Amino acid sequence: MIIGKRGFSLASSLLAGLVVVGLGMGMSTDAKAQETDFSPFARFGLGTSQGQLSPGLASTVGLISVNPDNVFINPDQPASAAALGNPTFQGSIHVQGMQLSEGEATSNAWTGGPGNFGLVVKRPRARSAFSLGLTPMTSKAYLVQRSLTDTALGEVSTAFEGEGGLARAYMGLSHGWREKSWVAAGQKDSVQISVRGLDLGAQVDHWFGDALQTSRIDILDPTFRDARTVVSSRQRATGFILGAEAFQVLRARYDDLKQFRGSWVMRLGATWSPERALNTDFTKWTESTVLLSGVVTGIDTTEFIQTELQGTVPSKWTLGGGLQYDGSRGNRFGVFVDLHAQSWSNANASLGHLMDGDGSWADAWSRSIAMVWTPGRKPGRITRTTYRAGFSHAMLPLDLASAGDAATVQLQEWRASCGFNAPLKGSRSASQLHFGMDFGRRYTDLESYHTESNMRVHIGVTLTPFVKNLWLTPRLYD
Predict the structure, then answer these.
(1) Whose CA is closest to 243, among 74, 372, 362?
(2) Which among 71, 65, 167, 3 is positioned nearest to 460, based on CA atoms?
(3) Of the residues 234, 300, 363, 372, which has the maximum number of CB atoms within 10 A of its CB?
(4) What are the boundaries of each domain within the chain?
(5) Would you call 405 exposed, middle or buried from its count of C-beta atoms within 10 A (0-12, 13-18, 19+)?
(6) Which among 319, 231, 214, 332 is positioned nearest to 281, based on CA atoms?
(7) Coil, helix or strand at residue 153
(8) Closest CA to 335 of 297, 372, 299, 384
(9) Which residue has the higher pLDDT, 44 or 332?
(10) Which segments of 274-363 are extended strands (E)?
(11) Is 125 left (phi over 0), alpha (psi -120 to 50) or beta?
(12) Are 170 and 208 contacting, i.e. CB atoms less than 8 angstroms apart?
């Protein structure tokens, strides 16, 4: 791979700056945190999976199956890599503010963390592509402390600390086909264009990670012993995703000079992933501790549990489509919809160990709609900004037991989003700067029972080679 020194410096400086800003904004005054999903029902990202951890996907929240344009990497749709025009690297970070309410209790925090990092390897304008990347599913890096006064024990300090989480590493192959046909240009001539196309892709991914949670009780009175509990959950699972995208030109117009005057295009897409086995190495130990020379030292183990648990993650499918208009000045407008479904109720028997507390797995689905708009070219300006917006509503895979009632209520969520991508200044390639934000609310039909609100801001880049410095292409001269 050949990368020019100037391009490498630009990419490195920008990514380093984004990481520093994200981590700095992810620090709160009373707790340090770098979390992907703050919900107590995250279940390592399986219960309230955030997904869309890249600016392009976040700005069209919930839109996975079909891609309105080919300027960013979609790690959830393996077929999309074939439609990219050039080899592409993608990186992003996100920052979020959140509020959690249960009854009359409310808590607020600011967190931040990395998003998707991916790479698509292909020759420019080739139909085949190889993709690989890494994206977090959930991360728990936090430290929360509080103090209270007990009538019997005196001053008591408690601390809750978390680290680690679950991530997804993936690699895939995709290939596309295009069919060309002649379209009338005026009354006496015609032009040849691609009127329909199909992209297919397959992706193998591996979930891995270890979530370590530690709680400490420090009784300041030296006559009492302290206590520490450490819970470790090491997860691993391997599976694959199949994806397909297709487009059909419904109408295309050209004038007598063979100048493009507009077209209508229909786009369709779908993904499917089968069931996968999830293995969990679970360890829990509780011990009495004392403070020796400023170091917390365990002196007696009161509980130790070590076991290996197995379960099955249910299959998932997504289906989407939309209609897109392209104008003669490069303007574009499209409306797209997406549907997701996953039968999590089948996981109650095998993954009940992940659903601690008064909850159970429930069937999940989501519906989303998104719009994409690119203004037309202005005199003297070739590059333009593309704007996106979306809205989704989902029933999450969690049934919560309502207080004092045997009935359960399902956790649901709505999210709204907006964002844009613009050409990266200082780069002569098709590299893009991406910005996206989404905000939403998780709730149940019992409004006072449990609510979560959050707003996320995503910043990232996609880097592509300059036409005279093509990656993966041997130099013809030195």
Answers:
(1) 74
(2) 71
(3) 372
(4) 5-463
(5) exposed
(6) 231
(7) coil
(8) 372
(9) 332
(10) 276-292, 295-313, 316-327, 332-342, 359-361
(11) left
(12) no
Bridge-partner residues for 161, per DSSP? 143, 214
Paired tokens of 165: 């989480």
Q: How many helices (DSSP H) and strands (DSSP E) are in the chain?
A: 2, 20
pLDDT in tens, 426-462: 677 788 999 999 999 998 887 667 888 989 999 999 9
Beta-carbon count within 10 A of 6 CB: 13
Helix (H) or strand (E) holding 23: helix 5-25
Q: Which residues contact 128 (CB under 8 A, 6 or more apart)?
A: 82, 122, 173, 174, 175, 176
First-residue to last-residue Cα distance in the chain: 15
What's the pTM value of the predicted model, to 2 decimals? 0.82
**Pairing of the two strands 128-139 and 332-342:** unpaired
What is the spatial distance between Cα 310 and Cα 210, in angstroms, rounded to a whole number?
Answer: 15
Q: Per-residue pLDDT for 163 more than 60?
A: yes
Q: Residue 155's Cα: distance from chain center in Å?
A: 42
